[in-house]
Design a protein that fits this description.
The chain has 335 residues and is α/β, with parallel strands linked by helices. It has two domains: 16-187, Rossmann fold (3-Layer(aba) Sandwich), CATH 3.40.50.1980; 209-329, Rossmann fold, CATH 3.40.50.1980. The protein contains ten helices and 13 strands. Strand 6 (124-129), helix 4 and strand 7 form a beta-alpha-beta unit. Helix 6 (189-212) packs parallel to helix 10. The longest helix is centred in the middle third of the chain and has 24 residues, at 189-212. The protein is globular and about 65 Å long. Keywords: Signal, Transport. Pfam families: Peripla_BP_2. InterPro entries: ABC_transptr_periplasmic_BD, Bact_iron-sidero_bind. This is Fe/B12 periplasmic-binding domain-containing protein. Residues 66-303 form the Fe/B12 periplasmic-binding domain.
Length: 335
Amino acid sequence: MWTVSRLRRLLPLAVVSLLAVLTACSSSTPAASAGATASKGPWTFTDDLGKTVKLDHAPTRVAGMNDEVVPLLHYGLKPVASWGYSAIKDDARFDGLDTSGIAQIGTAYGELDLEKLAAARPDVIVSEVFPTDEKGTIDKSQPDYGFKDLAQQKQVEAIAPVITIVIGGDGADVVDHTTKLATALGADSATVAKARTRYDTAAAGLKKAAAAHPVTVTALYADSDGVNVAKAQDDPALRLYADLGVTFFAPTPKGYYWANYSWENAGRIGGDVWLLEQDGYDSAHLKKQPTVADSAALAAGQVHPWVSAALDYVSQADYMNRLAGWLTDSKAVTG
């Protein structure tokens, strides 16, 4: 989730030449991705930034950010390495998934163990990037999300080609792009088709629930500095739900993606149902804040987790089912 800055103390980075030596000397590496077999012919894939990766065989060893590794696992693939802004065991999106054999090379933003990444011998590495405005502009002067800087990204690219997924625009499109990559990496077509059916069924259920229970939903993050309310049209997943009929609270502060409220002004935040990002304050903390303690959604107990579900058929189906249930159980409590 790109909700807050998770920049922490950055570890010293090893030089690429050292990584190459360690790769050659490594005697223990994770198994190749399950469901992926090397082809005899060349393999190409063009990512969302227009970069074309060309290999002499289909990649079987894939590394990536947690956000992109979760979809691959759902589609039956087994990446060899992963990193994110938390440990795999602390990331609820991995619950129920077999993560054995996945080398964890980073648990904080920008802190990657490049020696460990090189030792995993990935054929390709999957990352992501977010637009900087409503037009979908990608700032090419900045690294992909999760890398400390461009220098670190270049070190990663020296280990294996990087495939970038753009997390912006219509969530349904992002899900399709993620699935296209998984298929290219060897995901079983029957597994993908089953996941798509599950996704379509959940989407239909959410659409029905939104029509039958017209409540207003607010997605937000809160900490000691104040409250940030997400603008649904700027978040791919929230936009997907909005396209299915979910009504979202429209915050007034200007800016891309986030509308920022100080605690003094937080009482202006509306919505019958709140989706609360899990990395910040929980409901108990909110109830201690005088300006929001009496908010209608909080008082009614209509506050639920916003878990930033991965953009794949399975993850989104699960969250849409949960959201449909919350809408069904909620009532309008604001004017």
